[in-house]
UniProtKB/TrEMBL annotation:
Species of provenance: Aromia moschata
Any one biological process term the GO annotation gives: regulation of gene expression
Region Disordered, annotated ranges: 1-57
Name recorded for this polypeptide: NYN domain-containing protein
An example Gene Ontology CC term for this record: peroxisome
Biased composition (Polar residues): 1-10, 42-57
A Pfam family assignment: NYN
One GO MF term: RNA nuclease activity
Highest taxon above the source species: Eukaryota
Sequence ranges assigned to domain NYN in this UniProt record: 83-222
Length: 297
């Protein structure tokens, strides 16, 4: 009996060792059942959701509304078709007594109602054009391209090149505005209208404009009719009597050469000339051609 009990114990130990070895070899783990999560009542769940939504929506609603408005505005701007404006200022020059800034603004107000401006190109000889008009065009934020007036049809070739580039970059329903009455643009305008399906708007002088050029455009306008109600340009007349400006509160007993060099750097741009510098009192007298130059300093 004792031997049988020991044999049974040994056999049971061997079976346990075999099972443990088998589990180690196979990598199987004993199954463990996790207890189910506690159930929440509907009232508690609803109260939690409503409290969370109220706290989050109160701060996010305004920001989300503002961002949606901005996105909507940006989408509307992107949906507007592009419009290129090209001005041959030698053919349609700025009328006498008018301001170039007002002319550019009127063109934008008339033709950019249903379009967005892609580019505004003005081609001219900068050296021969009036300096006041060139400065006003710079102030109007247009692309001013200089071409030499010595070469024949240089401005027309530059504008035709710009028209072709615009047609390649912007498919229909884009549009172009050509401010010129030159017959050399007839072939390009015809291709843009009938082959590229781009809307062509022609602005021209009433005199000496070919009917073949007008037929190539979807619509045409008179240059002088667009600008007839613009205000007259008022020229500011300044007196040419010289003005003397006295500077005070300068450093006392300062190096004369350094002080003079510094004053020249400040007043030379406005046409001032140093008459006298008193280093002991810290004053200086500057002479200008007129009061406007002295006031600018």
């Amino acid at each position: 009996m004792y031997l049988s009990e020991t044999n049974t114990q040994e056999s049971s130990d061997d079976s346990l060792n075999r099972e443990s070895n088998f589990s180690d070899c196979t990598g199987a783990k004993p199954k463990f059942k996790f207890p189910p999560p506690p159930r929440l009542s509907r009232s508690a769940n609803n109260s939690y959701c409503t409290s969370a939504s109220d706290s989050s929506n109160s701060g996010i609603y305004n920001r989300s509304f503002i961002t949606k408005k901005k996105r909507h505005r940006i989408c509307l701007e992107r949906k507007l078709p592009p419009l290129g404006i090209y001005w041959d200022i030698e053919n349609c020059s700025v009328p006498k007594g008018k301001c170039a800034r007002d002319v550019v603004q009127r063109i934008r107000e008339v033709f950019l109602q249903n379009y967005r401006e892609s580019e505004f190109v003005v081609v001219c000889d900068v050296k021969k054009e009036n300096r006041r008009i060139i400065q006003e065009l710079h102030d109007s934020q247009v692309n001013l391209i200089h071409v030499s007036s010595m070469s024949k049809n240089a401005a027309d070739e530059k504008l035709r090149q710009s028209l072709r580039r615009f047609a390649e970059l912007h498919p229909p329903p884009s549009g172009i505005v050509l401010i010129s009455g030159d017959i050399n643009f007839a072939a390009d305008l015809s291709d843009l209208r009938y082959k590229k399906k781009i809307r062509v708007i022609l602005v021209h002088q009433v005199k000496n404009v070919a009917s073949a050029l007008i037929l190539c455009a979807n619509e045409h306008h008179s240059f002088m009719e667009l600008l007839k109600d613009l205000p007259e340009y008022t020229v500011k007349v300044y007196s040419h009597t010289p003005s003397i400006l006295t500077l005070t509160n300068l450093p006392i007993n300062y190096n004369y050469k350094k002080l003079r060099r510094r004053l020249l750097a400040l007043i030379e741009n406005c046409g001032g000339k140093i008459l006298h510098i008193n280093t002991e009192e810290g004053t200086a007298n500057i002479r200008y051609e007129n009061f406007n130059s002295a006031f600018r300093t």
